[in-house]
Amino acid sequence: MTLPPSLDRSAYLLAARGERPPHTPVWFMRQAGRALPEYRAAREGISMLESCMRPDLVVELTLQPVRRYGVDAAIFFSDIVFPLQAAGFDVEIKPGVGPVVAEPIRDAAGVARVRPVTPSDVSFTTEAVRQLVSELGGTPLIGFAGAPFTVASYLVEGGPSKDFAKTKAMMHGDPSLWHALADRLADVAIAFLSVQVEAGASAIQLFDSWAGGLSPRDYERFVMPHSAKVFDALKQYDVPRVHFGVNTGELLGLMSAAGADVVGVDWRVPLDEAVRRLGTPKPVQGNLDPALLFAGWEAIEPEVDRILAEGASAPGHIFNLGHGVPPNADPDVLQRITKYVQSAHVPA
Ligand code: 1CP
Prior knowledge:
Largest sheet: 7 strands, parallel
Structural class: alpha/beta
CATH topology: TIM Barrel
CATH class: Alpha Beta
Number of domains: 1
Bound molecules: coproporphyrinogen I
Shape: globular
């Protein structure tokens, strides 16, 4: 697909392709959300997953942070468990908790409940992406999906987990059941990402947020083949493919090798060290500690400077937080960081 020049030469897409844009692009994971009063007002009385099915609301919530902060990319408003619900799975997002699954998956019958997602199951997603792409003009829209491991963790545990005990028990205790589940979830991710790209999203991000809970050995054996399947399937679209997880310092090389074009880095590993760990140098995204948002500008500014300097060692750098925007973050601080990064001298 040929992109309009303003989009094709946008700072985000240039950096994601390993080129040097005039300024370092910046956006924030979870930039839409409770940190914004306009988000809380628009979502009033509408459940999270219900919101994802209303194209007008999805468009509004996706655009809010672009308007407010002037970030270099929009991320499609949805959730990693949304495609499961669209495929008929009983999941809900409980306020203050996160995704909760009524009947967790523990056996082959459970795995069989994860049905393939077809474009007609998510026609509202196609509609919302099309509308967004036309409204965003030269600002790229990032489509996203949850990676098989992270989505499986919610399905097997029944909700958020700290140790992933049941998920790991399934991996090691019944590897063929685990691989069957992860394979179905790879297909769900492929379907949902393809729908977004076909409708005009110009990059995709695969969130394996909780992969950092695994050893490299387990990651390589149980997770990497399934994430690699997702990246392989998306290759045909020729859009940058970004891979991110929290606490993945030990996994950066493997997550890159799974097929990412850009690797997201949390705050635990400096970006220059992250690039070394990738093996093959690639563009990186990150890595301001979200906790710094509450530390005052005097503390934030030198951290941003450090990240920009370290990011210069990568073939491309997209400034971001090391994880999502906390709900109680001050929007003015995010706006100040955006302007600061966009006007900073790009280190050679
Ligand atoms: O800017 C944006 O907000 C984009 C939309 C977006 C994205 C990219 C949402 C909306 N969710 C996600 C991805 C997502 N969802 C991830 C991967 C990114 C990450 O690591 O943060 C994960 C792990 C989830 C699961 C999830 N959904 C949680 C975490 C629970 C846990 O296990 O600790 C929560 C709280 C949600 C709900 C949710 N999703 C999105 C929003 C705005 C919310 C908050 C609920 C609400 O406002 O009603």
